[in-house]
Amino acid sequence: TPQNAGVAVVLLQKSKRTTHVFKMLKHSVAIVAIAASAAFTAPRSLPMRTAAMKFSAADAELVPRDVLFGNPEYAAPSVTPDGSKLAYLKPVDGVLNAWVRSAAGGDDRVVTEDTYRGIRQIFWAEDSKTLLYLQDDGGDENFHLFAVDVSKEGSKARDLTPFDGAKAQNVITNKRFPDELLVAVNARDKAQFDMYRVQLESGAIELDTENPGGIVGWGSEDESFEVREGIRVNPDSSKTVLVRDSPKSEWRDLAVFPYGEEGGMVDFCGDGEHALMTSSVGRETTALTKVKLSDGSTTEVIAFNDKADCGGIMLDEDTKEVRAVSFNYARTERTFFDEELKGHFDRLEGMGPDKAEVSLVSKTRDEATWVVSFRRDDGPTEYSLYDTASHKLTPLFVSQPALSDYKFAHMEDVRIQARDGLELVAYLTRAKADTPTPLVLCVHGGPWARDFWGFNSAAQWFANRGYACLQVNYRGSSGYGKSFLHKGDKEWGVGAMQHDLTDAVKWAVDQGIADPENVCIYGGSYGGYACLAGLTFTPDLYKCGVDIVGPSNIKTLLDSIPPYWGPLRNDMLKKIGDVDEDKAFNEKISPLYHVDAIKAPLLIGQGANDPRVKQAEADQIAFSMADKGIPVEYVLYPDEGHGWARPPNRIDFNGRTELF
After folding, report:
1. What sign for the dihedral angle of Cα 580, 586, 590, 595?
2. 108 noted as active-site residue
3. In this structure, how many other beta carbons lie within 10 angstroms of the beta carbon of residue 535?
4. What DSSP letter does each residue of 217-259 carry, written as one string?
5. Is 499 a catalytic residue?
6. Of 638, 633, 634, whose CA–CA distance to 608 is shortest?
7. Which one from 149, 267, 610, 639 is the annotated catalytic residue?
8. Among the options 373, 444, 642, 652, which is catalytic?
9. Of the candidates 557, 536, 538, which has an alpha carbon nearest to the alpha carbon of residue 611?
10. pTM (global) more than 0.85
11. Which tens digit of pLDDT belongs to each residue from 303-341?
């Protein structure tokens, strides 16, 4: 049963547009049951679960939701640059906080005092004594940068960016300047991020570089720690990489990427005359290249993959020589330019769990000690300390040790052919391989993002309950090259992006994986939109749908985005379609205008503080369905934003999803 005891029930009735709120506990969830006045007497016939839809343990023990969706016991380990200390996240009274211990261990102590939302990202300053973290307020995404001096026991966290209503991002540290950092904040203008310089000891903050207009990301040069690079999104949706020779110099264009091309700057090279960049110009996927700072001309193509864009890039911190580049079509692959580094990774792959993916999470400045992770598809992530001299691997901790008590399914990477022949990479996690089962099509958000291989709590939850879970990297997903990305342009809702999802369901049925009578579409953000689109534009395909923070009207979505998304708005219009000028097109692709077509039950979850997809997006489709006598279940969390950050809310909503 749902786990939040204090609830507020809001009944919105067609006859009276009034809201009756029963008194609730301080941190309760508001369950919004929206219905026409006659909805409580079943105004329409709804599909009922068949026997096949009953929860099944799939020959494995049922995994409790709090084990799958609760806080990790340990997360985000990070070693100080000098190797003296290790920080990590661990719950205190159910809330994630930052902990610190010496390198030897045994003296672990908590250094933050969050009592409600939890801290989710930590990192060290270069002085090896200041722990930094970002925190917002109730999911509003106006993150502030906080610092704790862990060298002083009892030291309190200080807000380094104390600007009301502003957001901090783009934090840069530098080992040559260990007592300061750079951070972008939209304090002067909510639509523009300027770069500020912060002195860690005093907390003094001053404007370093004012945004000349349209800059959405900043970079610094290592030797001087001066802001010398920015990336600007132009009104025509092209992107320009700008550089300057010093803070007193004028900005100049280094490279321009027309709309449809992808790329950006990686770093300045050690010789002071070149820069490393990624670029798709002249090829299908992004390649890592070296260019001249004087004119932007390419002098070398260093690495590329015909099927996947450049991923992580490892550089020598002093010389800026490329050591490794990763690519990910279905699984992580690396191209090495440093044989010693390759030897470490080859060795680690043989020391970890079978078929696990190895990642370098953190390292000391001298690279003597690494923190590495081993990511599996059927169990929790394991963290270890690796001594690069002795090659000794010392287990550190397991992220969620309670998961080790249960059996989980493997995640298969599969290929699906869309109706036009396009190959789609997808991930399948299923309860049983010998018989068709109910299917949950789990659609990723973005949409300019992608799913990856590895342990996925939602996929394992569905599989453990007897479902197959299919996650598809539909056209428009990122990482597969510029053509694949832009094949999603103007294809929302009734176009090829949604057709890819329909084709994926057909594939799962044809392969004997899915029961065609029992298919659910589930997703968050764009995935929530895809759910609404699936129920309105292909109403006979799905038995039910779960929409989490999904937009229902694309025009009102774009009209309510945060001010700092302003430079990206034209780019979104090019990718989605011009819903500003073409009212008919907006109505064509927006599920709000097609609710009459909905046949299957719908569950909506929304965060009241969501800055991306405002509460109005959920309200308006729920009200519309209520006015038309179409039942819908709507759950509103007053202390959440774009998704569920707090485990009690995450567990609660998933409990309601199971009951639904």
Report:
1. positive
2. no
3. 24
4. EEEEETTTTEEEEEEEE-TTS-EEEEE-SSTTSPPEEEEEE-T
5. no
6. 638
7. 610
8. 642
9. 557
10. yes
11. 999 999 999 999 999 999 999 999 999 999 999 999 999
